[in-house]
Amino acid sequence: MGFFTDTSVCIGCKACEVACKEWNSVPEDGLEFTGMSYDNTQQLGADTWRHVAFIEQSKPIGQAEPGTDHGGSPGAASDGGGTDMRWLMASDVCKHCTHAACLDVCPTGSLFRTEFGTVVVQEDICNGCGYCVPACPYGVIDQRKEDGRVWKCTLCYDRIGGGLEPACAKACPTDSIQYGPLDELRERAALRVEQLHGIGVEDARLYGHDPDDGVGGDGAFFLLLDEPEVYGLPPDPVVTTRDMPSMWRHAGVAAAAMLGGLAAVFAAHGREGGAR
Questions:
Q1: What is the DSSP track for 168-211?
Q2: What predicted TM-score, i.e. pTM, was given to this entire model?
Q3: Disulfide: which of 92, 151, 240, 243 matches 46 by Cβ 3.0-4.6 Å?
């Protein structure tokens, strides 16, 4: 099970952020006005499990929706054929990676894979070591300053266990956030990209949908209208623990070589001692 977030229909209402906080009792996160953006939550964190990004671009909005008349609106171009800027809005969340590095480095088993294929933190077991924070290729997991434990989206584990859809998907008024079996979501997403390309939105693309990518595909993937970097997403994420097996093999070979060398030294000294 997973999420498909179609950013082409996101209106930036932040209903998903509010629903997530209400259902999961996530504390408020300051709501500080940055002076740089209308986005006051700014990024994912221990107290922001869903985050709607507001990205202002110097591209005509008509590029996203050809044929739409935006004459007279703020920022309208002088020729009346469209605007000289557009908003990209996208609701970001934990990606619930197929190969999740956070699981590999957790020493207590606080992070675990659920029966739905999602990744969940058990806060009563987390010891606050923080190893999972740098291990996440997306920078999703965060420690709460008050107690040091890590927190992130659970994909509403309690709700889906009861046959309900996650709170964010339930609250989304445009179906920008869709929940369901990943195979069905991928088919739906491919059709949506084809539809957008058909009306001239050539920049439409999927992100995190490919099971052969560096993290084995994401349980939460996206339809984007520009390069991933524009949304603050890594273009080619990889599981950060991918080299651990080879590291352990090399360490084992080095340890065996050292023990062999020590055994040879002791054996040589033993023979010399016996000769006296």
A1: HHHH-TT--EEEE-HHHHHHHHHHHHHHHHHTT-TT-EEES--T
A2: 0.79
A3: 151
